[in-house]
Every structure is written in structure tokens, then in C-alpha cells.
Amino acid sequence: MPMRMLFGAVTLFAAACGSAPVPAPEQAVEQFMWDYTKAWNQHDSATIARDFYRTGPTVEEQTASLERGFETLRGQGYKESAIHEVKACMTGPDEAWAGMKYSRLKANGEPLPPKDRASSYTLTKFADGWRITGVGGAAADQPLACPAA
């Protein structure tokens, strides 16, 4: 059977069974980071602390810390972040790394200096899903690259 026909048969079989393809773990982490950015752009400290971060002693303390950070950013005219790139890779069975390139924008669309920014994130998969367990800097002028094994 030619390869094209075999692929078609497998695709039809999967469709008939009603099964959706399972995303690769890296894709799940990337989607998690896009969802995190959506909450970030809403300045939703409580949701970020509850659903995305696992960095503070308690959700309440993390929420308060995030809100202080947003207050400082809003004082500089910050409105939202424009994401330019997200890259994720698995670093262990339940651990991942993500890198993000972005700009922080004012309400008028002008970027807060510096225009180009990058951050790196350490993620761990818990029983309730992926959580950011560490945030660090990254070089905005360098390609996002998974950490060396």
C-alpha cells in the first residue's frame, strides 16, 4: 500500500474513532504560556497566582506580590504585553523550560523601554497541571534556545 494511502487510512480510522490527536508536551507548555499571557494582559493577579504560578508561599501572598508589580507597571503607563515568540521544551518527565520574547506596551501602543525583552521560565507539572516555578531573564537579542541537557 503506498504511503499516502496508508496515512489516509490511519487518518480516517482516527477520525472514525472520534479521537483527537494528543498535543506534544511542548505544545501543551506553549499553550499554557499563551494562556498565562492572556491573564497577565488582564492584570489578573488572582488568576495568575492560582492557575499559573507556584512561586510564593501562598496564593494570597503571590497575588499581593503580583498586584504590587502591576501597580508599579501601571505607574509607568503599562497596559499590556505584545508577545513576539514563545518556545518551550521538556527538560524532564514533569519539567519544562519556556522562553518568551515580548514588548511591554503603553495604552498608546508605544513600548516601555527597552522595546525588546525576553524572559525564561521553569515549569513543573503538578497534579493540577503545569505551573511556573521560576522566572528569569533571557537575552532579547539572542534566539530562544532550550537549555543544554
Structure characteristics:
single chain; 149 residues; Nuclear Transport Factor 2, Chain: A; four-stranded antiparallel beta sheet; 38% helix; 31% strand; disordered N terminus
Architecture overview:
The protein has 149 residues and is α+β, with helices and mostly antiparallel strands. The chain has helices spanning 3-17, 25-41, 45-52, 59-75, and strands spanning 78-92, 95-106, 117-126, 129-137. Helix 2 packs antiparallel against helix 3 and helix 3 packs across helix 4 (59-75). It has a single domain (25-137), classed as NTF2-like, domain 1 (Nuclear Transport Factor 2, Chain: A, Roll), CATH 3.10.450. The chain is globular, with a radius of gyration of 19 Å. Strands 1-2-3-4 form a four-stranded antiparallel β-sheet. Mean pLDDT is 89; it is low at 3-17. Helices cover 38% and strands 31% of the residues.
Structural class: alpha+beta
Helix content: 25-40%
Percent range for β-strand residues: 25-35%
> Which superfamily, in CATH terms, is the homologous superfamily?
NTF2-like, domain 1
Number of domains: 1
What is the subunit organization of this protein?
Answer: single chain
Order of helices and strands: HHHHEEEE
Broad CATH class? Alpha Beta
Summarize the structure.
38% of the residues lie in helices and 31% in strands. It has one domain: NTF2-like, domain 1 (Nuclear Transport Factor 2, Chain: A), CATH 3.10.450.100.
List the helices and strands and how they pair.
Layout: H1 3-17, H2 25-41, H3 45-52, H4 59-75, E1 78-92, E2 95-106, E3 117-126, E4 129-137
Antiparallel strand pairs: 1-2, 2-3, 3-4
Helix pairs in contact: 2-3, 3-4
